[in-house]
Design brief:
With about 425 residues, the protein is mainly beta. The protein folds into three domains: about 5-100 and about 255-280; about 125-235, C8orf32 fold; about 285-414, Immunoglobulins (Immunoglobulin-like, Sandwich), CATH 2.60.40.10. It contains five helices and 24 strands. Helix 3 (about 170-175) crosses helix 4. The longest helix has 15 residues, at about 140-155. The radius of gyration is 24 Å and the shape is globular.
Length: about 425
């Protein structure tokens, strides 16, 4: 008997636009594997249907034909089937219904714990990556370190569709500072592992204009467990609820399904269909409000966490394009903490002699605030600078001026 040809089936990452929805969701995924072989050879299939973890709970599974099912050590639901291609073509189908709810509930924050970890060719850091990671590390706070790693990768890598399908290594991404979700994730994993955080690569789906394949990371937080982190979209802890986990691995090359077939000329195709049956919001107990400072045309967004847990989530501030645009970042709210976020307009686009009514909005996960910023350049415009809205610190004021139009400052009150 001829040795079987091994065919690896990976989820292909494709470009997409993206819509954020947090809270609860119920997602349905249907995966279809089509094996074509005119010789009607015997084949053996080993594949992954979906993951079962603390953020998503599988409530229903069906397969056609009936396949063996088992839960792997990482929580993924694996499928196994052995048979013979019939009539030149065999189709395997599997369906799962999953409840998704990203909710961190981090009760404590532990210091960094240094440990030596292994790397893959795609995630091995060089000295520059390690130095950058250590410059962001906070010895007394693992959560803050993870937050700052995600924000750094999100802010310093440019999303570039030209990198689709290339699967660049972390070293390449650090130099080129461009890529798609795969590149963002490889660099984040490399930086986190260089600090001693265990990590895993996640392959799955998110919802944009349509459901599209996506990649992100999970970082092991001591005392808590696996914390999801999506550097592409600037999210960590609480991801939006369209994130659907399928595979885990060490990097992109490690997530695939396997078909062993006797005929080396056989082909296989995989297609997935994902649907959201419902979404519902969940503010996670966090409140948000926004005021505008008339003298400086700066928005002051107040975030408050009244609870006893740390809340890690996505903050998004949006001004129409041309006046500042949209910026997202991960913000950490400690127990019973209030955080102020300041954002300023791009003064260079405001013309004397005109009045402006500029809608602005801010959100932290599902908590939202909106207002209209009234700008009249003839009433004192230019007498005040954006720095007047910042905390009384020369360094903070300089940062605010330097970051126009996308200025972002935090001031904390406990």
């Amino acid at each position: 008997m001829k040795p079987a040809t091994i065919i690896l089936i990976a989820i292909l990452m494709v470009p997409f636009s993206y819509a954020i929805t947090f809270g609860y969701s119920r997602l349905t995924i249907e995966r279809t594997w089509t094996i074509e072989d005119p010789n009607n050879s015997t084949f053996e299939f080993n594949g992954t249907l979906v993951a079962n973890n603390s953020n998503q709970h599988v409530i229903f599974i069906s397969t056609e034909p009936v396949m063996d099912q088992y839960a792997a050590d990482d929580g993924t639901i694996r499928l196994h089937y052995k048979g013979k291609v019939q009539g030149g073509r065999t189709v395997l189908k599997a369906k799962a219904i999953v409840n998704v709810d990203y909710n961190t509930n981090i009760s404590s924050d532990v210091p960094l714990s240094e440990q030596q970890l292994n790397y893959t060719n795609l995630t091995e850091p060089d000295q520059a990556i390690s130095l950058q990671a250590w410059s962001l590390a906070k010895d007394n706070s693992s959560i803050t370190t993870i937050r700052d790693l995600v924000n750094w990768v999100h802010s310093n890598v440019e999303y570039d569709l030209g990198y689709w399908g290339q699967s660049k290594s972390a070293r390449d991404v650090f130099v080129e500072r461009r890529g798609v979700c795969v590149e963002y994730t490889h660099l984040l994993i490399s930086m986190a592992r260089s600090l001693g955080f265990d990590t895993r690569y996640v392959s799955g789906y998110v919802q944009g204009d349509a459901w599209q394949p996506h990649a992100w990371a999970e970082i092991y937080l001591p005392g808590y467990g696996w914390l999801p982190a999506d550097a592409t979209f600037g999210q960590a802890g609480i991801l939006d609820s369209s994130h659907l986990t399928i595979h885990y691995g060490q990097d992109q090359s490690d997530v695939y399904d396997i078909v062993a077939v006797q005929n080396p000329e056989a082909s296989i195709d995989v297609s997935d269909d994902v649907d959201a049956e419902f979404f519902s919001e969940d503010l996670e107990g966090v409140s948000i409000s926004m005021e505008t400072e008339e003298d400086s045309y700066v928005a002051d967004v107040t975030l408050h966490n009244p609870g006893s847990d740390h809340v890690l989530g996505a903050f998004v501030f949006t001004i129409p394009e041309g006046y500042g645009g949209s910026q997202s970042s991960v913000v950490l709210l400690r127990p019973n903490e209030t955080v102020h976020v300041f954002r300023g307009l791009n003064h260079s686009l405001i013309q004397a002699g005109y009045s402006y009514e500029i809608p602005i909005s801010a959100s932290f996960n599902d908590a939202r605030a909106e207002t209209v910023l009234s700008v009249n350049p003839d009433n004192g415009w230019g007498d005040e600078t954006p720095g007047t809205a910042a905390p009384a610190s020369p360094c903070s004021a300089a940062i605010l001026l330097a970051m126009v139009p996308a200025a972002l400052l935090l001031r904390r009150f406990s």
